[in-house]
């Protein structure tokens, strides 16, 4: 099981992340597609090859091909949008009405349930630190009927995978060295 491989790669000093990952992989708040799409989109957003490889292998066994591609699509499009929307916010009111001018067709037609795609986009936006996108996607999924507990579960998945990626990167750089 690939989540187990990932847990085994986490250094002992990051044991809390290993425990969190184990419990989140058995989430009861999200359905299977929501959970595994959130795991995959978040893994891609961490930009850590080990995390993405391990999560993607298990996600491929769980998600349909359309859902798998949509989760990766959510990560990719949010990688672009989070930068653009943060910049608009940084630049202030003069840029509020500026046309974005970037193609985002996948948001309108993701190939899966729109609420699931929006949930995955929320998780990625959380990792990427885009306040406006995180809030906007949270509103969309709440308006579609997801509970605050489901939204928070997706945030916990994103936060945990980002922490796991950091711990694994540290271990790869340090070669397992600890003091």
TrEMBL record:
HAMAP family from the UniProt entry: AhpD (MF_01676)
Gene: ahpD
InterPro entries: AhpD (IPR004674), AhpD-like (IPR029032), AhpD_core (IPR004675), CMD-like (IPR003779)
GO molecular function, one term: peroxiredoxin activity
Domain Carboxymuconolactone decarboxylase-like stretches: 94-168
Enzyme class: oxidoreductase
Quaternary data: Homotrimer.
Protein name, entry field: Alkyl hydroperoxide reductase AhpD
UniProt-listed Enzyme Commission number(s): 1.11.1.28
Keyword Translocase recorded: no
Function: Antioxidant protein with alkyl hydroperoxidase activity. Required for the reduction of the AhpC active site cysteine residues and for the regeneration of the AhpC enzyme activity.
Catalysed conversion reaction: N(6)-[(R)-dihydrolipoyl]-L-lysyl-[lipoyl-carrier protein] + a hydroperoxide = N(6)-[(R)-lipoyl]-L-lysyl-[lipoyl-carrier protein] + an alcohol + H2O
Annotated active site: 130 (proton donor), 133 (cysteine sulfenic acid (-soh) intermediate)
Keyword Disulfide bond: yes
UniProt KW keywords: Antioxidant, Disulfide bond, Oxidoreductase, Peroxidase, Redox-active center
Cystine residue pairs: 130-133
Family membership noted in the UniProt record: Belongs to the AhpD family.
PANTHER family: ALKYL HYDROPEROXIDE REDUCTASE AHPD
GO biological process, one term: cell redox homeostasis
Annotated SUPFAM superfamilies: AhpD-like
């Amino acid at each position: 099981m690939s989540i187990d491989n990932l847990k085994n790669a986490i250094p002992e000093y990051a044991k809390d992340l290993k425990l969190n990952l184990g419990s989140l992989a058995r989430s009861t708040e999200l359905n299977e597609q929501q959970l595994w799409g959130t795991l995959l989109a978040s893994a891609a957003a961490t930009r850590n090859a080990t995390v993405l490889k391990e999560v993607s292998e298990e996600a491929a066994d769980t998600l349909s091909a359309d859902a798998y591609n949509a989760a990766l699509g959510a990560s990719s499009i949010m990688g672009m949008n989070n930068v653009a929307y943060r910049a608009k916010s940084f630049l202030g009111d003069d840029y509020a009405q500026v046309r974005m001018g970037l193609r985002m067709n996948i948001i309108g037609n993701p190939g899966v349930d729109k609420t699931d795609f929006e949930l995955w986009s929320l998780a990625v936006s959380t990792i990427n630190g885009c306040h406006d996108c995180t809030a906007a996607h949270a509103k969309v999924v709440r308006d579609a009927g997801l509970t605050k507990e489901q939204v928070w579960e997706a945030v916990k998945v994103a936060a945990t995978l980002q922490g796991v990626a950091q711990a694994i990167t540290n271990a790869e750089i340090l070669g397992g060295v600890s003091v």
